[in-house]
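Comment thread on ticket #2218

A.B. wrote:
> Attaching the input chain for the structure job we discussed in standup.
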Amino acid sequence: MNRRRAGCALLSVVSLLIHPLALNGQTAVDSFGAVLDVRVTNVEVLATNSKGVPVAGLTKDDFEVYEDGKRQEISNFFEITSQADVRSPDATTSGSARPSVSAVARKYIFYIDNGTVSVKNRNEIFPAVLQFLDTNMLPGDQALVVAWNRSLQIRQAWTSDRAAVKAALEKLSGELGSSAELVSEKRRAERLMHQMAVESETAAIGVTWEMVEGAIRAYAENTRHDVSMSVSAMTKLLNSMAGVEGRKILVMATEALPTQAGAELFQAFENIRMKAALSSTSTLSYGARRNSPVGYVGKYNISPLIETLARSANAAGVTVYAINPKGTDNQNSGKVELQDPSEMNAEFADSVQILDGVNILANRTGGRAMIGAPAAMALARLTQDLNAYYSIGYRSRPGSSPDRKIEVRSKRPGVTVRSRSNVYYRSIETEMADRVLANHLQSELSNELGVTLETDAVTSTGSQRLLPMRVIIPTDKLTLLPDAEGNMAGGFSVFTSAGDAAGGGSGVNVQSHQIKWPAAQAAQMKGRRIGFAVQVPMDKDPKQISVGVVDIVSQTQGFATVKVASN
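C.D. wrote:
> Ran it. Output below, let me know if you need it in another format.
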């Protein structure tokens, strides 16, 4: 389904309190371009000493920020030392300004990979997560519980009800995953390699190169399919977070997110081939003089999808924390099964492609990949990150690439900093479309423009049903600038989507209108409101309409929803 369908809605603009105003037909004002493209980029920065202890009391003069190698002037700065304190009415923060509650409220996504997480890991992860919630889910925070099991399943929609979140996690903790098929395929390939390694010095050969290679390729293909599906689903999930305010944390429990599916088995197979090829006694030496199976690894490359997921996380401001208490031992049985008297080298299997993906996500987003650490310890580190950090903002202008490298440096000796390494800039239209869709779920986005909505009864035109709506905007909230002709010029864009609070939404319709008022008329509009009339297509039976408005000069935004009566 297309996310936006420009032109589907029928729009016109009228004044609610004065005579109709002609707002359509004007051309865009070129001088607004530079204003539109300037945006404030906020980066969360963790500062610690050599022992990993957070360093408090730093100022913006203790930091330098670089975007694509160019130093940026810090425009916004504040320090958070206690979430509970900053949310209290009497709270103060060390920094240039106290942040709003919405800026520091947390949005937790608990992502459980049911396709890989083993029973022994589950028995440790879930109790630790439940304890983490008791400590860290404060008033104003929200959480979402999702599970991957060949499809993305929302087990608890966004809620601030901690008890509901814990109940969903407790129910999920008792489930078994769907990894048995892949595990079985992997072990079969390992057994064949083990048998081949043992038989290579005997006359009896019951395993051929083709048999082993076929088993490995089947495992790699199915792994690539499953991982690609889960990464694509997660990317869509994070895209929906782009318009949500607050600090966004993805807690991921998984035991496998490789960048190259099956790479560890291909390498182990290559070790057998090389040894047989160099042997003067191996009965497999002739067949070993063949193309290296490692050459197939590129066919099962998942890295581009994981990089796309990392970009989506950075575009949405999501920080990724991965937990896996038992490290790679759960999935990698090769260390036990593949070593034999022939001293086959299986070090590659231990090394880790199996979790390369989570390391990429954590490093790109400024989080942590806590592999092999006890779950309680890992979540304690996350708690530390949540309650001691600096928010640094700078004004960024358009560049040649939307994907920018960010580097935050400490000027204070002995202080180490950690932050996301990239930021991905999307167009204003894309950002607004994502926020309008997110507004179905959140219904709490900022409304700096003071947008309100009025609706009439649904009408029918042939097979199409339309909902007449007026988007009301106070004129004092709009920014107008004088143009070369002495008029006051500006404009706004309206984005609409029909959907429901469960997250289902139609495409996003967008229409823009320019304002060009003579100075006298602009003065008369002070304290007044204008209404933007739009007819929203009702393709199905939506429960609500989500609307977003952006001022094209100041980029000030406003969001609202209205419930729709069921027919």
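A.B. wrote:
> Thanks. Noting for the ticket: The longest strand covers residues 488-499.
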